[in-house]
């Protein structure tokens, strides 16, 4: 089949470049091919008058009375010489085994394609249409109908003779018949009728709307969408009729079925043919347009539209103008539309041309997207439907997309698409890399190169690294960080970086990258030297990751200078690899760093660095006095005399007071607080901590001539020393600030103490009573004595085997049981006995709670 020239064009009143560009953005719904091969030869010498489509073949009738059977590609398979004049109609049953033919000279033939047996008759008037029963092959009656000036039904009776019945007449020539299941629809000059052959009733009459049009020039188009839906197109109007079952209660003398028109609307042009497409309609239109030179209408190209029917209108989905041969000479009656239900093929029949329209498949959709340079959508469509596409390959579409992006200079997008399109094809990858090198865009593709299990040759990666090293140090460093070290020859890249460093020895980016390369090459000592030189944050990670502690023993000061906190934490976390003594030795000349290290060591463990505690006193005094006193409090290995000497030299009063009190010289410590600090609150706090009456007496004696101190003592002494001792020693007439408030506070504190004591007493009495009651209830409970209990003295069963004999048993509150005769004498207090076991264990004597006699 050859493609139709100018096959799709949207008609409009005024076609402009802008409108054409807009229309071209809408994808066509159908594609078109001209039916060629044997069809071309037929139409060169003859003209098509009618055609019928079967799923397996085509049947074409010509103006010279011939009928041709062709395959789907248009090749002739059979030829029948039926008449010398125009073939009006060809009808096939569903099986495609029987054919019915009628011609303009009144001939009607119905025969089997494989048997040649059937009906042959000549009428004295033209027969316009013939229609076989859809199940003609299987039916015993072999029914068919013909239409001329009347509608005749033919069926074979039991004697194998043909019986004729007139179904309708008197309304002019019958121009179209469509038979579906048990329903026959036909059109005459008046309208469209439907006949139910099962009930032998005519169901309805759909009148023609525009009676001004000649029926022979603008024939009616009929099409069954399904067994109950008939589509009628006549002139410029379309009606969709649905055959429904009538309610039995409404039937009376009416037919059992009726027709409801569910949609009726007008179109812009004259209808030549109709065909269903899912819930839409494919409509063939005859178009006339005005001539520019003469005041007359000329035949334009026919239009094939897809429309969506609505109850009173329609919505145009697509519209294609078709350039068929000799369209200028054709009338509305010269066009027909036939369709193949099995494959959704639509045949546009004209006298000198037959065009096949078919729904566009995924390959066609991709073609259109590529043509419009919508490569992203084309690639996505191909990936989604890769199992259904036949003419396209996902990778080829992807390569076209990459080429398009490169041509439009969108190099980054082109490189990014390589990951998806090239996939695991290493050969294509290398070709693309060299192409990007040729156009000077290696940087664009570098970040997308394969670097997992599938890899390119090392030379490819080295080529890109050398390119970056020439022009972009930062990009080079990024690639070295992101790419695994085994992608390329590490030694070659190290040498290249070294050469560049000779020209720029202080470039930190190149130095950092060189350190990373040394790390990949496991030359950690060189990497460490560079990191320390640059004070790089990754130096600690490098040491930890590769266990380089032996390499940093002589670099501890450098590490501390870089980041004291991280360095100390690392050293303390790895004491087994770098000993405390080694660190102290290295930091001996840097006491401020040594203090930081020893301070953190002491915080972690008060005993690990005990031999350095004496040195730490001076370090704290010099660099960190706020932590000196906490250190003196927490350390048990600090020499107090040395500490006292240092604190006295530096006049550290608080630390000296603490050391004096710790060495037992509390009076001297209190004196320093009073004399040097002059802080009565601190002196009182110190006296409280020591809880020594002599200290309180010294404090009172020192404060007795200092009114502010007396006020402080009166406010705080009440709970520790009898305030009377202080009050009695105050000189008469001495003016004491806030004396009244202080005395009120003393009285308040005294009352509070009295209340607390009374409250405690009440709680004690209540608890004692409760416990006594609980003990009384416990001791009043009965105790079970049975054969399993034994005497704790003789270990015999507590109850005799003969219960008839007299026996005495003593049970104590502690639940120990004895035979009375096994207990010793009552002792000094007559009648009072004690449990021998509990008395021996010093649990306190238990008196007998029960004495059983019998």
Question: How are the SSEs ordered, and which strands pair?
Answer:
Layout: E1 2-3, H1 17-24, E2 30-34, H2 38-45, E3 48-53, E4 58-62, E5 66-70, E6 76-81, E7 87-92, E8 98-103, E9 107-112, E10 118-122, E11 129-132, E12 144-147, E13 150-156, E14 162-169, E15 176-180, E16 183-187, E17 191-196, E18 201-207, E19 221-224, E20 229-234, E21 237-245, H3 248-251, E22 257-266, E23 270-277, E24 280-286, E25 288-290, E26 297-299, E27 303-309, E28 314-321, E29 336-340, E30 345-350, E31 353-359, H4 362-371, H5 375-384, H6 394-407, H7 411-422, H8 426-438, H9 442-446, H10 458-471, H11 473-482, H12 490-503, H13 508-520, H14 524-534, H15 539-546, H16 556-562, H17 564-573, H18 580-586, H19 591-604, H20 613-623, H21 628-634, H22 640-649, H23 653-662, H24 666-677, H25 680-690, H26 693-703, H27 707-716, H28 723-729, H29 739-780, E32 808-812, E33 817-819, H30 836-840, E34 848-853
């Amino acid at each position: 089949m050859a493609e139709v020239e100018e096959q799709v064009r949207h008609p409009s009143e005024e076609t402009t470049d802008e409108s054409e560009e807009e229309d071209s953005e809408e994808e066509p719904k159908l594609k078109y091919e001209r039916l060629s091969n044997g069809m071309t030869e037929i139409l060169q010498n003859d003209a098509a008058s009618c055609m019928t489509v079967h799923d397996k073949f085509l049947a074409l009738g010509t103006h010279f009375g011939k009928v041709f059977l062709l395959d789907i590609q248009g090749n002739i398979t059979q030829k029948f010489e039926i008449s010398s004049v125009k073939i009006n109609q060809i009808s096939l049953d569903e099986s495609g085994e029987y054919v019915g033919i009628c011609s303009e000279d009144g001939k009607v033939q119905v025969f089997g394609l494989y048997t040649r047996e059937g009906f042959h008759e000549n009428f004295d008037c033209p027969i316009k249409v013939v229609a076989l029963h859809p199940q003609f092959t299987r039916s015993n009656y072999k029914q068919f109908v013909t239409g001329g000036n009347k509608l005749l039904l033919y069926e074979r009776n039991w004697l194998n003779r043909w019986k004729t019945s007139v179904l309708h007449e008197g309304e002019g020539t019958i121009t179209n018949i469509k038979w579906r299941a048990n329903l026959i629809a036909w059109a005459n000059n008046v309208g469209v009728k439907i006949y139910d052959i099962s009930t032998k009733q005519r169901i309805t009459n759909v009148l023609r709307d525009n009676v001004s049009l000649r029926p022979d020039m603008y024939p009616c188009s009929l099409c069954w969408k399904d067994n109950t839906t008939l589509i009628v197109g006549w002139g410029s109007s379309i009606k969709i009729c649905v055959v429904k079952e009538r309610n039995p209660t409404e039937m009376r003398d009416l037919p059992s079925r009726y027709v409801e028109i569910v949609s009726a609307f007008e179109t812009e042009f004259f209808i030549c043919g109709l065909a269903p497409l899912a819930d839409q309609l494919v409509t063939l239109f005859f178009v006339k347009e005005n001539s520019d030179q003469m005041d007359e209408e000329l035949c334009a190209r026919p239009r094939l539209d897809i429309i969506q029917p609505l109850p009173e209108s329609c919505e145009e989905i697509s519209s294609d103008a078709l350039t068929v041969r000799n369209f200028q000479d054709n009338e509305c009656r010269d066009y027909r539309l036939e369709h193949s239900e099995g494959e959704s093929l639509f045949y546009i029949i004209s006298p000198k041309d037959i065009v096949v329209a078919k729904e566009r498949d995924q390959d066609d959709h991709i073609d259109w997207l590529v043509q419009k340079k919508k490569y992203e959508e084309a690639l996505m469509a191909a990936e989604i439907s890769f199992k259904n596409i036949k003419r396209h390959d996902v990778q080829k579409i992807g390569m076209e997309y990459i080429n398009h992006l490169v041509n439009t200079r969108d190099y980054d997008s082109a490189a990014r698409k390589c990951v998806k399109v090239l996939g695991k094809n290493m050969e294509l990858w290398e070709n693309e890399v060299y192409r990007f090198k040729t156009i000077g865009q290696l940087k664009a593709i570098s970040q997308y190169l394969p670097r997992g299990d599938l890899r390119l040759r090392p030379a490819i990666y080295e080529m890109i690294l050398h390119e970056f090293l020439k022009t972009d140090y930062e990009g080079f460093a990024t690639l070295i960080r992101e790419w695994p070290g085994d992608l390329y020859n590490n030694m070659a890249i190290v040498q290249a970086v070294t050469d560049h460093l000779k020209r720029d020895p202080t470039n930190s980016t190149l130095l950092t990258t060189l350190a990373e390369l040394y790390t990949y090459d496991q030359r950690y000592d060189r990497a460490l030297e560079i990191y320390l030189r640059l004070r790089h944050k990754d130096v600690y990670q490098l040491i930890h990751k590769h266990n380089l502690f032996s390499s940093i023993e002589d670099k501890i000061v450098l590490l501390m200078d870089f980041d004291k906190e991280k360095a100390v934490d690392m050293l303390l976390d790895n004491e087994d690899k770098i000993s405390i003594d080694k660190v102290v030795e290295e930091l001996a000349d840097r006491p401020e760093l040594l203090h930081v290290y020893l301070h953190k060591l002491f915080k972690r463990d008060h005993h690990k660095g005990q031999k350095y505690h004496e040195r730490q006193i001076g370090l704290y005094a010099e660099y960190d006095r706020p932590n000196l006193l906490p250190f003196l409090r927490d350390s048990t290995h600090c020499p107090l005399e040395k500490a006292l000497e240092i604190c006295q030299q530096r006049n550290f009063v608080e630390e000296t007071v603490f050391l004096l009190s710790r060495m037992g010289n509390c009076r001297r410590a209190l004196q320093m607080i009073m004399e040097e600090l002059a802080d009565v609150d601190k002196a009182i706090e110190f006296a409280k901590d020591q809880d020594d009456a002599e200290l309180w007496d010294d404090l009172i004696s020192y404060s007795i001539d200092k009114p502010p101190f007396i006020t402080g003592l009166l406010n705080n002494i009440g709970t520790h020393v009898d305030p009377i001792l202080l009050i009695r020693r105050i000189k008469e007439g001495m003016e004491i600030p806030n004396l009244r408030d202080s005395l009120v506070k003393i009285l308040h504190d005294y009352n509070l103490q009295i209340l607390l004591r009374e409250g405690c007493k009440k709680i004690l009495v209540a608890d004692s009573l409760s416990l006594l009651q609980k003990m009384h209830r416990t001791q009043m409970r009965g105790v079970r004595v049975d054969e399993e209990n034994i005497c704790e003295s003789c270990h015999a069963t507590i109850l005799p085997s003969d219960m008839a004999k007299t026996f005495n048993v003593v049970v104590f509150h502690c639940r120990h049981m004895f035979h009375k005769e096994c207990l010793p004498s009552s002792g000094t207090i007559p009648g009072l006995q004690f449990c021998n076991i509990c008395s021996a264990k010093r649990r306190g004597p238990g008196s007998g709670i029960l004495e059983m006699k019998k």
